[in-house]
């Protein structure tokens, strides 16, 4: 049912790989209050990230406007984990949106230098509108028309298998030029669900705020092409950030497919100056 999200979800290749190898934990726990119901369907995790799948439902006469909050708390510490965002869409029924059902995927980022979380609590809030009120949202939303669920909480334990696979770190040391600045693909961190690429500006004299922003903004397309026995998979980067010495980008992963080779393709320039930068990650 979550294939509904695949055409626009950057985590689709990651989830495909996880499901193919049984690297998934079915939860299937629900909680309801009034007109609202949430189900935590499944999770998968490694020491860098948690990906969770959920389904929201509303009663007859209501339509889901959004799941405006989907967070996870580490019950051992009492703190919410870092939210990496997510995507969602209404269900399809005979080719039409069924606005009473909403499928969502959320991502949480973990700090692997800290203890692996075990007891967690998923915390959701659903917003809905009376049937027919969502026909023309281009005219804006009347706040008075939106109904909010109370916080809907589901506690669960992560399967211990998720902390068994350690992050693999490779150091390609691949140099290239961006906007006249020499940059190095210094480090790549690979785990079952995440690939983190670390770029460093090579000359310390060029590590200024302006140069960091310049090289970070010079790339307008990022993908990793991973060749495995299942074919070549394209993995996208949903997020990135400038750092003190350069920048980082986060990708999904198909490491469980045991890649034969892995290259990072970056697009830079415009018009006749458009070019691809091809950087080898594996082998």
What key attributes describe this structure?
5-stranded antiparallel β-sheet; 283 residues; 6-stranded antiparallel β-sheet; 2 helices; single chain; mainly beta
Summarize the main sheet. Answer: 6 strands, antiparallel
Round the mean pLDDT to the nearest integer and report it.
Answer: 92
Unreliable spans: none
Helix and strand string, N-terminal first?
HEEEEEEEEEEEEEEHEEEEEE
Coarse shape: globular
Q: What structural class should be given to the helix and strand makeup? A: mainly beta
Rg over C-alpha atoms, rounded to the nearest angstrom: 21 Å
- How much of the sequence lies in strands comes to over 45%
**Which oligomeric form is depicted?**
single chain
Q: Helix count, per DSSP? A: 2
Helicity range: under 10%
Number of strands: 20
Distance between the termini: 36 Å
